[in-house]
Design goal:
This protein has about 160 residues and is mainly alpha-helical. It is built from 7 helices and 3 strands; from the N terminus they run ααααααβαββ. The protein has a 3-stranded antiparallel sheet, covered by helices on one side. α2 packs across α3, α2 packs across α4 and α6 crosses α7. The longest helix has 19 residues. The two termini are about 15 Å apart. The C terminus is likely disordered.
Length: about 160
């Protein structure tokens, strides 16, 4: 569903931008998340929905929710939000057949993503580069499926 509404490439770009921003936040509250995401929106020169809609769908698994992505992230907490974003990016890597390299993150946040995807037999994760600029890579193990159709996530 998210692919039909936003488009697979834009969704991948948006989620790839969002995950490291959220991972590197020193505080996890609505004001901090809002400020960080809106700073990125301004930096990229995109509309709010370009970044916030994929976040909402990725963390909720639904097209329509009572709250937005920022509110849902606050309620879910840092680890669960990062885990859900990692699962969506793994799905992207698997279906496009392309590896996804995230912006630098600290060791703790990289570990959350590695742990979230460790049992996923379709992708592998590894860290690349030197501290403090070490990046996390999500790479598909196999070629993408050709019969892929958009789907709604139920979590």
């Amino acid at each position: 569903l998210i692919y039909e509404l936003v488009g697979p490439l834009l969704t991948k770009e948006a989620l790839t931008a969002v995950l490291p921003i959220l991972a590197n936040l020193p505080e996890w509250n609505q004001e901090a998340i809002h400020a960080a995401l809106f700073a990125e929106i301004e930096k990229l020169g995109v509309k709010n929905g370009w970044l916030l809609y994929p976040l909402r769908v990725a963390v909720s698994g639904k097209q329509f929710t009572p709250g937005g992505g920022i509110e849902l992230a606050v309620v879910l907490g840092r680890e669960e939000t990062l885990r859900r974003l990692a699962l969506r990016l793994a799905d992207k890597a698997r279906h496009t057949g392309e590896k996804i390299m995230l912006e630098p993150m600290n060791r703790h946040e990289r570990k959350i993503i590695h742990m979230a995807l460790q049992d996923n037999h379709r992708v592998m994760t590894y860290s690349a580069g030197e501290e403090p600029f070490r990046k996390l890579v999500i790479e598909p193990k196999h070629a993408p499926r050709r019969d892929y159709k958009a789907r709604e996530y139920d979590e």
